[in-house]
Write a structure and sequence with these properties.
Largest sheet of chain B: 7 strands, mixed
Number of helices of chain B: 0
Number of strands of chain A: 11
Shape of chain B: globular
Largest interface: A-B, 24 and 27 residues
Structural class of chain B: mainly beta
Strand content of chain B: over 45%
Shape of chain A: globular
Helix content of chain A: under 10%
Order of helices and strands of chain A: EEEEEEEEEEE
Structural class of chain A: mainly beta
Helix content of chain B: under 10%
Oligomer: heterodimer
Number of strands of chain B: 11
Radius of gyration of chain A: 14 Å
Distance between the termini of chain B: 35 Å
Order of helices and strands of chain B: EEEEEEEEEEE
Largest sheet of chain A: 6 strands, mixed
Distance between the termini of chain A: 41 Å
């Protein structure tokens, strides 16, 4: 079945530094979504990418969808303590209409 | 705006007990789903519903039942609790198929089975 993998699992970042987290699917995705979950909280929708090669920005966050629509990345510039949390990517199953397949997430810890 | 409301927020059960986790949404969303979240495993789909009266199994349905009698409510029932069901449970809703629309999550229910 479809698998959605995220790397790295953990990311320790010094405040002010940049980092990137990656999401890879074993199958082609029609679109991909990204969510953020703060410690003790619930996942919150960040963005959806649909087109091959699409790039979207939200302030210091840059999201990219791969040309083959099998991978995606989230790049955070000048990391702040407010970026702490776990970032999940999720894609619709190719053979499972109505289901969303989540990656295991990248847990981000920011050191002041 | 209440959004997606889950009750209870915390629960401790003994092995073999049954209980129902409640989920209600006030956004008139057709699609609702239940996930469990375990450390290092992300969110795994338990059951989902594409509308009142229609439910289907997700990735990890064993030991859980659901029903959808109204658009607003989607309760999750644990039939006979087992320690392996200790987890954080999230209910989510979206206007339509979640792959095309963002999902709105509740605050979660933290469940411990002793």
């Amino acid at each position: 079945g479809q698998q959605v993998m995220q790397i790295p699992q953990y990311q320790h970042v010094q405040e002010g530094e940049d980092f990137t987290t990656y999401c890879n699917s074993s199958t082609t995705l029609s679109n991909i979504q990204w969510y953020k979950q703060r410690p003790g909280g619930h996942p919150v929708f960040l963005i959806q990418l649909v087109k091959s090669g699409e790039v979207k920005k939200q302030k210091r966050l840059t999201f990219q969808f791969g040309e083959a629509k099998k991978n995606s990345s989230l790049h955070i510039t000048a990391t702040q303590t407010t970026d702490v949390g776990t970032y999940f990517c999720a894609g619709p199953g190719a053979d499972s209409w109505g289901k969303l397949q989540f990656g295991a997430g990248t847990q981000v810890v920011v050191t002041p | 705006n209440a959004g997606v409301t889950q009750t209870p927020k915390f629960q401790v059960l003994k092995t073999g007990q049954s209980m129902t986790l409640q989920c209600a949404q006030d956004m008139n969303h057709e699609y609702m789903s239940w996930y469990r979240q375990d450390p290092g495993m992300g969110l795994r789909l338990i059951h989902y519903s594409v509308g009142a009266g229609i439910t289907d199994q997700g990735e990890v349905p064993n030991g859980y039942n659901v029903s959808r009698s109204t658009t607003e409510d989607f309760p999750l029932r644990l039939l006979s609790a087992a320690p392996s069901q200790t987890s954080v449970y999230f209910c989510a809703s979206s206007p339509s198929v979640p792959g095309t629309q963002p999902q709105h999550f509740g605050d979660g229910t933290r469940l411990s089975i002793l």
